[in-house]
Design goal:
about 190 residues, alpha/beta, five-stranded mixed sheet, 7 helices, 5 strands
Length: about 190
């Protein structure tokens, strides 16, 4: 309980999911054990427990089969899409702008977050002009409702983005990978 209390016990948090799955399994086994003990001590409860289990099976089996819990963990799916695209580029001299740059640093790419990219646009674009890296790749989440990047994934007005790859990740948004260049009129 203490381990996951910092997320208020929300099992859809990616960092909590691994703990929640183990505790859910433990509680399920505990319920089975207690049901077995109750049935052995009071045989009259056996038909009731079997009936309850039979009634709950058609209710929860489709949900379990759809794997909804794991499908809610969109961060790993999103990173797989983005990293897969970078792998197909076959270019290690890329600067990645992402809301989670650590995921790309661990794969050997240079990476910064959006706040840093907005605050240091001139510096990053000058380094691109000087061939410190071959390209700047921006990982954005685009809302279907308005077709715009979410505020957390907007690199700012100093960049012109050319879309390279798009893939759906959530029902309400999709991932767009773009190459960034200096906007016309941006200072050099």
């Amino acid at each position: 309980i203490v381990t996951v209390s910092y997320h208020l016990g929300d099992p859809s948090e990616p960092s909590v999911a691994r703990y929640f799955a183990a505790s859910a399994l433990a509680l399920s086994l505990l319920a089975s054990f207690l049901g077995g003990e109750l049935s052995s001590r009071r045989p009259a409860f056996s038909p009731a427990l079997i009936g309850l289990a039979a009634a709950l099976l058609p209710v929860y089996l489709p949900s379990a089969g759809e794997n909804r819990f794991m499908n809610q963990l969109v961060l790993s799916r999103r990173h797989r899409l983005e990293a897969g695209f970078l792998g197909r580029l076959d270019d290690g001299r890329v600067l990645v702008v992402s809301d989670r740059p650590g995921l790309f640093v661990s794969r050997g790419y240079g990476a910064v977050n959006f706040a840093y990219a907005r605050a240091n646009a001139d510096e990053l674009l000058t380094e691109l002009d000087r061939n410190l890296y071959d390209r700047i790749v921006v990982m954005q989440e685009i809302a279907y409702s308005d077709g715009k990047a979410t505020p957390a994934t907007d690199p700012g007005p100093d960049y012109v983005l050319a879309s390279l790859y798009e893939a759906q990740n959530k029902p309400v948004s999709y991932v767009r990978v773009s190459e960034a260049r200096r906007a016309a009129g941006a200072k050099r």
